[in-house]
Amino acid sequence: MAGSEVAPLRVSAFPAPGKQHGGAPPRLAGRARDVLVFAAGVAAAVLALLGSASVLGAPGSRLVAFPVPGPEDGPRTFYDDPELSYDAVDGRRLTGWDAKRAEWLRSRGLGRRPAPERVVMVSGSQPEPCPGDAGDHLMLRFLKNKLDYCRLHGIKLLYNRDFLQPAMTSYWAKIPIVRAAMLAHPEAEWVWWVDSDAVFTDMDFSLPLATKYAGRNFVAYGWPDKIERKSWLGINNGVFLLRNCQWSLDLLDEWARMGPAFPEHGQWAKVVLSSLADKGNSTWFDDQSALVYLLLYNWERLGKKAFIETDYFLMAYWLDVVDRLDGVAARYEAVERRMPWLRRRHAEREHMRYAAARNAAVSGAVPGPAGGGYKGWRRPLITHFVGCQPCSGERNPMYSRESCDDGMRRALGFADDQVLRAYGFRHAAPLNDSVRPLPFDYPARNN
Ligand SMILES: *[C@@H]1O[C@H](CO)[C@@H](O)[C@H](O)[C@H]1NC(C)=O
Ligand SMILES: *[C@@H]1O[C@H](CO)[C@@H](O)[C@H](O)[C@H]1NC(C)=O
Questions:
Q1: 126's torsion region: left (phi>0), alpha (psi -120 to 50) or beta?
Q2: Could you tell me if 124 and 159 are in contact, meaning their C-beta atoms sit under 8 angstroms apart?
Q3: Best residue among 434, 436, 438, 447 to mutate for probing ligand 2, ranked by most atoms within 8 Å of CB
């Protein structure tokens, strides 16, 4: 999959304030209310300042003024520590996170133990418009696909379009946002990074978080033979899971320090590029090479908590799956024609029950693992358009425009059909943007 060696995202200044779209001005009533709310806020802040001056304001005290917690905010937490930094580069190292998180959960009445299946998905794209033809339209479709999966599975989606740390450019930009997401979501047990050019192609599959990944803190898709050869393509970090814990913050810190925001970056580039088997002549030091190096050369220390998924397509290389999606859809339909209960129409909120029933039905009838794999005809969980560069259009020259464009549209349409089902529609054909209504008892009846 040398296909991922492509031009990095372009970075430029943020748009000038004047260029941002402004909506219609707020209605007067809204504005008046805002003024009132603002005035109340000022009063509270003044009180807080006065309070802190008299109570906490001893010279040299580290406790500077913070807004007095209101009764609904609960007791003080790590958020009230003025030294807490969301910054992966310039901030102070965060320690004791597991205890801080547990304390926050307790103080907010969210239980003694975190819920293993509480997930925040994080994805994102560049701050500027996409330079490629229809790039923004494709990014919208990729985002819609993630919204669909998250809505069906009760996952929160955080979509970021800012470089939180300007020096952490291109692919490195995911590190600061993943770290900030952990701090902003102490209720989430997992942060799930998904590249913008990855498509959910199985709306039914749920990650085995509480079972297979219990006791693990990092999960990514990989190829053991490539890891064996010390290839930078041994794992693909376009999709990965990090448990929201101190171990993960430490890993992010260690990984970030290899990045372009740190003076050691050049030194690390030499070490990593010469240590990995297939980077010998390259000067392109990316975040994936850094992560593969970190894991490979520290497996004794990190391996116990890391998990390289190989059983199902946590991330499939698109060329391995897109031509088979029509065959996959046909096999799922054949199963539904035999099983009337799977054809029953239902509310979207019941999706997970039907997903479980469909999974049980197809596991006996359609070969291959749930979540998809190299063998068989199960739906791949995620199809990753490595090298297609939908935003910039600067495809890796080894792929044709048609193969990338058709592949992306086929995968997105394949996913949309699974979602549209609950609304009574599907696409007229795999690459057709028109929809047609589904008859009652579809697919036993087809028109
Ligand atoms: C690196 O470059 C040398 C000389 O140009 C070449 O012989 C070798 O095959 C290259 N190695 C890789 C890994 O591309
Ligand atoms: C898409 O399907 C509609 C409805 O069946 C049909 O009228 C239209 O010609 C199709 N478009 C293409 C590009 O095939």
A1: beta
A2: yes
A3: 434
Atom of ligand 1 minimally distant from the CA of 278: 13
Chain-centre distance for alpha carbon 194: 3
Which of 273, 274, 281, 283 for a ligand 1 pocket mutation test, highest count of atoms within 8 Å of Cβ? 281
Tokens read off for 2 = 């040398």
- Tell me how crowded residue 378 is: count the other CB atoms within 10 A of its CB: 25
What is the Cα–Cα distance from 406 to 299, expressed in whole angstroms?
Answer: 40
Q: Which CATH superfamily is domain 93-309 in?
A: Spore Coat Polysaccharide Biosynthesis Protein SpsA; Chain A (3.90.550.10)
| Interval between CA 146 and ligand 2 midpoint (Å) | 26
Res 39: pLDDT: 41
Positions in the chain short of pLDDT 50: 1-65
Residue 36, Cβ density class (10 Å: 0-12 exposed, 13-18 middle, ≥19 buried)? exposed
Strands (E) across 98-141 are located at 119-124
Q: How far is CA 374 from the centre of its chain?
A: 23
**Whole-number pLDDT of residue 113:** 67
0.90 exceeded by the pTM? Answer: no
Where do the H-state alpha helices sit in 298-420?
299-302, 318-321, 325-338, 340-343, 351-365, 401-420
**What does the DSSP 8-state code read for residue 432?**
-
* Ligand nearest to C-alpha 229: 1
Distance of CA 381 to the CA centre of its chain: 14
Sign of CA dihedral 252, 181, 138, 126: negative
DSSP character at residue 261: T
* Domain edges within the chain: 93-309, 316-426+433-437
pLDDT at 110: 85
pLDDT value for 384:
98
Cα 150 to ligand 2 centroid, rounded to whole Å: 30
User: Ligand 2 pocket by C-beta < 6 Å: which residues?
Assistant: 428-429, 432, 434
The Cα angle at residue 193 between residues 190 and 196, in degrees rounded to 5: 150
Give the per-residue pLDDT at 14: 28
Ligand 1 site, residue 280, Cβ cutoff 6 A? yes
- Token pair of 38, please? 């603002």
